[in-house]
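Run log, item B.
One chain of 354 residues. Sequence copied directly from the ordering sheet:
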Amino acid sequence: MTQPIEVSWFAALCDDDYEFLGVPDPSLRSSWEHCRDITLNADRHGFDNILLPSGYTLGIDSVAFAGGVAPLLTQMQLLVAVRMGELWLPQLARQLATLDQMLNGRLTINIISSDIPGDKLESAPRYQRTREWMQVLRALLNGEDIDFHGEFVDLTVEPPRVRTVSGECPLFYFGGFSEDAKETAAEHADVFLTWPDKVDSVAGLVREMNERAAKFDRTLRYGFRSHVIVRETEAEARAAADRLVSKLDTDTGESIRAKSLDAASVGVQRQAELRQASTDDGYVEDNLWTGVGRARSGAGAAIVGDPDQVRAKIEAYQAVGVDAFIFSGYPHIEECDLFAKYVLPNLNHQPLSQ
């Protein structure tokens, strides 16, 4: 039997929910009610975790939303995205420890190194800020006194009285594809997240990151952030993919992608390369469709197929070292229902442990 994996869904806090990509629907706009319903639906279906994304110009706040939804959950973890530099570190540590208590120890943290609103930095100093924040945030959540004097963090403070349930820092999930990002992940992350790519490319990235982490005497786990479209037959799944982009025009897609704070990142460029390398119908390899990236910055491809094909694709990524998957689909509630019906029961999954 294969080792257990973590299977997560996506809460679409960043105004990223559509029936037709590029066609806004007020009922699917990011709001407390809609994102709550997505999250509770995933919890009912037995997903292990759910990503609460963070984007200042898009949607609602991840930390505030987590505080509202945490008491409503019965079993699922929350993967809360936080941008390094956006909040005062001791207060952020206190907020996250409080959330972990509300979740009875089921908090995980998605570290974001993108620019923060009104404060644009070049890559090297931005990742230096991120490294310092990750180091100090982990120490605070481990209950350690801080006497740190770096380029971006100058802080002498005791840890907050409130502690996580375990007394230790929750797992840090972190993604990025530049040299600075990879080195930051190797030194400070627990789970390295990658966006959709060909299986062989993901295998190469895992090998590379294992070597980088070994230089710091560390090991990493690996996560895969992707969209998914599953139907009873492959033909139905492909038809659903075609329908999703059937009302999208090029200018609208470019406008949506440009809104993201990381629109020019190395990872986004790689997603564009995949689209350019795909066939006329958008497939870059079996069951990996790049069409969703025409109207989305960030994860720009979807696993598309019947239940057996989708499961086989997931297992192919697992075979090269991935043990955490974060899926999404359009609309998020409906696709969550379909994935839970056709795929989730046939996956060996459970939440990642520390």
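Observations after the first pass:
- The chain has one domain: 6-228+307-346.
- The two ends are 22 Å apart (CA to CA).
Flagged for discussion on Thursday.
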